[in-house]
Write a structure and sequence with these properties.
The complex is a heterodimer of chains A (486) and B (471).
Chain A lengths: L2 H28 L6 H17 L11 H25 L6 H12 L15 H16 L1 H6 L6 H11 L12 H25 L4 H12 L16 H14 L3 H8 L3 H5 L2 H24 L9 H16 L14 H13 L12 H19 L8 E2 L2 E2 L2 H26 L5 H12 L20 H15 L3 H6 L10
Antiparallel strand pairs in A: 1-2
Helix pairs in contact in A: 1-2, 1-3, 1-5, 2-3, 3-4, 3-7, 4-5, 4-19, 5-9, 8-9, 8-10, 9-10, 10-14, 13-14, 13-15, 14-15, 17-18, 17-19, 18-19
Chain B lengths: L1 E5 L3 H12 L3 E6 L2 H10 L3 E4 L5 H6 L7 E4 L4 H15 L2 E5 L3 H5 L1 H8 L3 E3 L1 H14 L5 E5 L4 E7 L21 E8 L2 E3 L12 E6 L1 H13 L8 E5 L3 H12 L3 E6 L2 H10 L4 E4 L5 H6 L7 E4 L4 H11 L6 E5 L6 H6 L4 E3 L1 H19 L4 E7 L4 E7 L20 E8 L2 E3 L12 E6 L16 H15 L1
Parallel strand pairs in B: 1-2, 1-4, 2-3, 4-5, 5-6, 12-13, 12-15, 13-14, 15-16, 16-17
Antiparallel strand pairs in B: 7-8, 8-11, 9-10, 9-11, 18-19, 19-22, 20-21, 20-22
Classes of the chains: A mainly alpha (486), B alpha/beta (471).
Chain lengths: 486, 471
Amino acid sequence: MNYAMIRYVLSWIAKVEAGLLILPLLIAAIYREWAVFPVYAAIVALCLAVGLITSKKPKNTEIYAKDGFAAVALLWIVLSVFGALPFVFTGEIPSFVDALFEIVSGFTTTGSSILKDVEALSHASLFWRSFSHWTGGMGVLVFILMFIPVKTGSQMNLMRAESPGPDVSKFVPRVRNTAKILYRIYLGMTLIEVVLLLVAGMPWFDALCITFGSAGTGGFAVLNSGLASYTPLQQWIVTISMIAFGVNFSFYFLLLHRKKKAAFRMQEVQFYFIIILTAIAFITVQLLWQNGVRPDLATFEEVLRAASFQVGSIITTTGFSTVDFNQWPSASKWVLVLLMFIGACAGSTGGGIKVSRIVILAKSIKKELIVLAHPRTVRKVMFDGQVVPHDVLRSINVFIAAYLIIFGASVLIISLDGFSLETNFTAVAATLNNIGPGLDAVGPTSNFSAYSNISKIVLIFDMLAGRLEIFPMLMLFMPATWRRNG
Amino acid sequence: MQIIVVGCGKIGKAITAQLSEEDHNVTVIDTNAERVRAVSLSYDVMGIAGNGTDFEVLSDADIEHTDILIAVTHSDEVNLLCCVLAKRTSGCKTIARVRNPIYSRGQNYIRQVLGISMTINPEYAAAKEIIKLIRFPSAIEINSFAKGRIEMFRFKVPEGSPIIGEKLRHSSFLNDDVLLCAAERGNEIIIPDGDFSAEAGDMLSVMSLPSKAISFFDKIGYRKRGGIVKSTMIIGCGEMSYYLAQMLIKSGIAVKIIEINRERCENLCSLIPQASIINGDGSDEAVLKEERLSDMDSLVTSTGIDEENIILALYAKDKVKSKVVTKISHLEFNDVVKSLNLDSVINPKYITSETILQYVRAMGNSIGSNVETLYRLMDERVEALEFHIHDSCGLIGTKIMDMHLKNNTLIAGISRGNDFIIPGGNDSFAPGDSVIVVTTNHGFRDIGDIIEDRNPLKDIGEFIGEREANR
């Protein structure tokens, strides 16, 4: 382990966080919330001070593979610990574990909350919560890599540890330039959504926070009613935005470079839309058929809007809600749970297992069947017109195995709190896949506050593991990581 | 710059590592997907698995926006074809590794016809490097200009040399064949004029044709110090040694080759009749004694086995009079080799990648200017630049003595077709020439920059500046 270099990377995260916290500080000033203003100011100063004290550049700037994983995991933890401080010291979330849960849920773009009354928060804190989605969505590390001068091999070790999806994909040769392009696309799409929502008549503060939530596929709302009280047009805009942010960003890169054909040939994007349309159709039909009596879903438009919104919200792992889908028939609920596991595309801001992994898994099951039937057959799994290398297949299989083990263990631990199986199952599904609300006692109209601290810590771990694709977090628990000769 | 490297062998990898470290945007192409993955995971580059001659693959690598394509696969034909394709598609600069002597014999012709910017033959390049060391073992640095036709030697003036104390304008040593370009005395750098005279311990840089250099160093007193090599023994005669032997003979050095393979020996007899060819085991002490290794001025160990080369070099270190050169093919474990205290070590792969890198760097330096080659010499305080003279150049036809050159600027050479001119006052530029300029001024971008500005306002400005400084 190159401890000095990890310290150096962490010093940068403190500095960057100081910069990020200036925004809620401004919001506090705009809304004249002088009670919380000094708290935010003090924490900006604290982050800056910590960042500057520890920022001596080490002699050996090499980051080895192991260090990369550990650095990424630590970085997210440090980011969250500092990010939780404003909630604690403004007294809005006095318990540290609760505050940590809330901000981890923010940075990992989960959107699960322990707050009973969201509207009681100050504007500054509401903004900070939603803004953490936006920063966490694209990845903090990639952002930092644009500033830190490290060796190119070391950069790859960091990049590999944070990027979502089965493999690191780059648009252009250099990480730094790829990151710039990603952030440009991200910023551009964010601006479009904000403008559309403003034009559709949403108040500017709500428009900003809702956009942050959907861009990062997070899911923190600013009203207790979620998104139910917004107009149909505004809900449609959010639906389309969420689905757009769940698409692999390579798609947009190809579109921007006039490679339309290549863009629309991306199998992951094709399957993503097929899954979305099928799910919407299924839920719409079921709701129309079995659900004529409910007042909020009376017309066809209302049903279609609710189904589209919820499907978009869940598959992209955003977690906004316009209706209480907890009340829906169980087949529709199960479709939503399945969508939770599938998740968005790799290379998007969404979480979950990722569409590409699911498609490749399905294809390898098919291959296995054919091989069983014709033992001498030679066959390779193809994706996007190319053979999937054995290494990638293996890493996907291992990922799923690790995912299931963590899932099982987490459900076991939080079950000790005595809630129903549906609650516990979906609570873990919602956090490990970075969605937000689950079903039953953690459904869209309630929250996670009833769980014990131990359960909350387990769920915090799940959120981080889900966002970082599991292995960086596991690496922290491997003793050899911390030994110099390990 | 946008750079494509085709072929991820040892050289390809070394180039990729260095270029990506120097902040270029590198895309690597190799048919072996495993190798591409390994390279693109360990360096910040994009990897594409496929054949570099496949147009689809090249366009995936964004060939349209590429500045340089470097083809270093193991196949000459693939390399050449890649370069032609790339050149035709985007007009980028191309570099190909071509090692088959059939192609390298007609090197210039192939380069011109196919539009390739540079071809490199690792064995030939290594041989060139070795001959530099052998021909002038006391040189500290040797830089080549005009594609190797002229060289700049940097050396220390020995005690008691007849060159000491002689004014440059009357010098019998520094004449039409040898041009003194720069002198370092302590921390000072002097671009010398006619009144300059050398002192013992000065570091001089002279420009000279390779063939004239030996007699020059002979004259200024290096022979007495055992610094001139007249005979060389080469153990193991592969492709590189063959090139080397040819060059050595050309520059008047006697060559003795010891080669274990009888057939190869017979082949060599007809290829280089001037050399004396011995069929024997070079690692046999008796053979070496019999062939009087101790009477040799220099030894080159270039068998196919690194370990053998090293042991032979260690054995010969005290026996050979002035220079022992060891050929090594491994790129790693440099420290171990260094710690052995061998005289000179030559690594063809390293030389290849360094030569390519130098070209790329020179190109990076020359973007937006007329500079063809740029060397930074003497701790980067002196620049030696090579300019191409276009038809529209305003200096064509003006005699050098009539040009008002800037201070500390010297025209060190003119390369015209296959000739090289060490310029005197009566020479002038012609279209198509390459002109070498040595200067302590930085940032020349065009040949016109060497002329003193005759702007009166600027003169006044300088005058005022000087007056201020005097106060």
